[in-house]
Design brief:
- About 25% of the residues are buried.
- With about 350 residues, the chain is mainly β.
- A hairpin with an 8-residue loop joins β20 and β21.
- The chain folds into two domains: about 130 residues, Immunoglobulin-like, CATH 2.60.40.10; about 160 residues, Sandwich (Immunoglobulin-like), CATH 2.60.40.
- The longest helix has 6 residues.
- The chain starts with a strand and ends in a 32-residue tail after the last strand.
Length: about 350
């Protein structure tokens, strides 16, 4: 009789970060059952509970015939295209040495020659670290954003006095803008012939990941857009990043709001549309272009225009990156910085 050892392991993690409804927590690792570090073979966890500290995610995975495994957790948006699992990786654990799990004790063989784990131990990790905390391991906090696993990133950049308001009513007012993706396939499939509604509402799409960054001296990290987007002033540089596996099916709806310093509520004054950006011929060799689109008021009259720089970023061809190593983001603590060069903005 062939003896096969099976370890039934629960992977449980506490995620303190704020997650969107479309976000998922996954695990990847060094064995076949954990996907061998490949993005398209990561194992999704299930949301169990929400606490004051964050959300608990867990799943049970059967590990076959190995003494030790390495693994990492990640936060991603799952996009299924033709039943294939595609990931837009938002954040992942980047410890130089991944989490380790060893199996020291198991029960006796059952009749079918299968053993099941009873007390798996985690190397150098005390028992009170169950569940694990996302991004924290052995007292070290280290996470990073993901890379393009197959999706395209479109950057809409607003700068150099990009916003021009013609309407005298709003010309000297402070304006904010928010970009919303439109899934054209969804809109076509669910198109209604009725025109009773005075305005069109676009349903959110789980196939698109969108962030914005306002480049200022006080900070320029990309974050999820707020309800009213970012305030854009004359010398500001605003970047909105959109990631999608289907750039040809995604258009962009830009809403403009009147900013009132007295109240947090903002008045909607107009909108603009940007058609899908996916053609390399359109973007020429440098994959960059400029667009000027009109801003339409609520009474369907033009009230201004906005200039948009567009940059298309595609993943590297024939290069398959894994979650195994993280040397590009690792710098040993206590090591002095090295000035290797500078070429300006």
């Amino acid at each position: 009789m062939i003896r096969r050892v099976v370890y039934d392991i629960e992977f449980r993690v506490l995620v303190k970060e704020k997650l969107n409804a479309s976000d998922s927590v996954l695990v990847t690792g060094s064995c076949d059952q954990l996907g061998e570090w490949l993005p398209n073979r990561c194992v999704p966890l299930n949301r169990l509970d929400k606490t004051d500290d964050g959300e608990i995610w867990s799943t049970n995975i059967k590990i076959y015939g190995t003494q030790k495994i390495s693994y990492r957790y990640l936060i991603a948006q799952i996009v299924r295209i033709d039943d294939d699992l595609n990931l837009i990786v938002k954040k992942w654990e980047t410890f130089k040495v991944a989490r380790q799990l060893s199996f020291n004790n198991w029960t006796n063989d059952s009749d079918d020659g299968v053993s099941s784990i009873t007390t798996p131990t985690v190397d150098n990790e005390p028992p009170d670290e169950f569940p694990a905390v996302f991004g924290c391991y052995k007292g070290e906090l280290r996470t990073d954003i993901g890379w393009l696993t197959g999706q395209t990133e479109i950057q809409l950049r607003f700068h150099s006095n990009a916003l021009q308001i013609w309407s005298s009513k709003f010309r000297n007012s402070k304006i904010s803008l928010k970009v919303s993706p439109i899934d054209l396939n969804y809109q076509q499939d669910n198109e209604e012939t009725s025109t009773d509604s005075p305005s069109q509402i676009f349903a959110p799409t789980s196939k698109v990941f969108i962030q914005s960054a306002l480049l200022r001296l006080s900070g320029c990290e990309a974050n999820i857009q707020s309800d009213y987007g970012a305030i854009i002033e004359k010398d500001d540089y605003v970047i909105v990043k959109i990631q999608t596996f289907e750039p040809e099916n995604v258009a962009y709806h830009i809403d403009f709001y009147l900013v009132d310093d007295i109240t947090s509520l903002r008045k909607h004054i107009g909108f603009a549309y940007v058609l899908p950006i996916h053609s390399n011929l359109e973007l020429a060799d440098n994959k960059q272009l400029n667009r000027i689109v009109p801003i339409i008021g609520l009474k369907h009259n033009p009230i201004g225009q906005i200039k948009i720089d567009v940059l298309l970023i595609t993943p590297l061809d024939a290069v398959q990156q894994k979650f195994f190593v993280t040397p590009s983001k690792y710098w040993r603590q206590g090591r002095r910085p090295v000035n290797v060069g500078h070429r300006g903005l």
